[in-house]
Amino acid sequence: METVTVQLDARSYDILIGRDCLRDLGHLYAERGLGKTAAIVTNPTVAAHHLKPVRQSLACAGVKVTVITVPDGEQYKTLETAAQIYGDLIAAGLDRQACIIALGGGVVGDMAGFVAATYLRGIDFVQVPTTLEAQVDASVGGKTAVDHALGKNMIGAFHQPKLVLIDTATLETLPKRDIRAGMAEVIKHGIIRDPGLVAFLEDHIEGAATLSLPAGQINWLIARQCRIKADVVAADETEKGLREILNYGHTVGHALEVVTQYAHYKHGEAIGLGMTAAGHIAVQKGMWSQEEFDRQTALIARLGMPECVPDLQVDEVLARMASDKKARGGVIRFVLPERIGKIAPRDDVTRAEIASGIRYIQALG
Ligand code: NAD
Ligand code: GLY
């Protein structure tokens, strides 16, 4: 297994990446001295494929496990579902020594993490991510949240896991569309931080998006994402500065998700469109070269991402951006590329430039 450590002093933790390693969870959990009682939070889709080895492995390690199942979908990443989980934890008698184990994609991970951050004022938590999105991004870094009808991830907490266990074999049951959506975050990491990764993707993106690269290369690719994110989080855990770069594509992307009621796009798809809009704005501002923007556009196009919804109202998107948690004093913030591997937060993007970015993605067809 590959190990990436998120260096956060007393809250440091390992991300372990391997193949067919769900069965190792029990001893890895026990090695870290985590509680003798645990709740696995998952959904029916993930449970059908991957719950059994996780549960058995914990039982073999002497952990008493309660399974809590939540409905599948971003529309359930809400305080109401969190309340259901709190109720199940209380009914099962879980105390402060207990641990929550998130088994699933970013939706389960964000919500289970938020519950772990708040139940009994905070208990331990382990991430077992089963989507590419969650393996390369959501499970790392300690951002936990639920959505509000008026905005994405509006209610949340920073709460780092004690361990992240990534079994890349779980991706084999994931729908192809979710793999492609997760690959958009991989492109994001390349553009913000890693020109070598962009060059690798230019050679291999179809193989990566169909998981047809050799298993060792898939593990290496996922570990590289975790390393990029771990370095940024170690430098700026609570997004006072550097961590903002991870929000590339998110200003437009989150607004697209909210105005389409989370029903039209996978998260990574919205981020792909958001990166295109942000890249266009950066080129219009004279900050980024057309040539590098075209390289980003070509990579996203090779994933075969969905088109922008045609009837998008620019004013509605702008209103959502202004109330997004990334805005400061109502001023919309973007992160814009200067060159591949270098990106900067900006609060000087005008309404006309944003409208131009949105019209650009609408016209892509
Ligand atoms: P998701 O959790 O909804 O998973 C996508 C679909 O795949 C779901 O239907 C799920 O049930 C299914 N699934 C999961 N694993 C599977 C498997 N192995 N086999 C078959 N089906 C499987 O979506 P996602 O794309 O994983 O995550 C998106 C969420 O992550 C968003 O809410 C986003 O805001 C959040 N996110 C958080 C962070 C963070 O730093 N906390 C970062 C990025 C994204
Ligand atoms: N996905 C943005 C972050 O973790 O900071």
Give the C-alpha Rg: 20 Å
Question: Which fold name fills CATH's third level, the topology of the largest domain?
Answer: Dehydroquinate synthase-like, alpha domain
How much of the polypeptide forms β-strand, as a percent range? 15-25%
Helix content: 40-55%
Per CATH, the superfamily of the largest domain is: Dehydroquinate synthase-like - alpha domain
The arrangement of helices and strands along the chain is EEHEHEHEHEHEEEHHHHHHHEEH
For the record, the CATH architecture of the largest domain stands as: Up-down Bundle
Main sheet properties: 7 strands, mixed
Coarse shape:
globular
- DSSP helix count? 13
Name the structural class.
alpha/beta
| Low confidence ranges | none
Please tell me the total number of domains.
Answer: 2
Overall residue-averaged pLDDT value: 95
CATH class of the largest domain: Mainly Alpha
Tell me the number of strands.
11
- Which strand order does the major sheet show? 1-2-9-6-5-3-4
What distance separates the N and C termini? 42 Å
User: What ligands can be seen in this structure?
Assistant: nicotinamide-adenine-dinucleotide, glycine
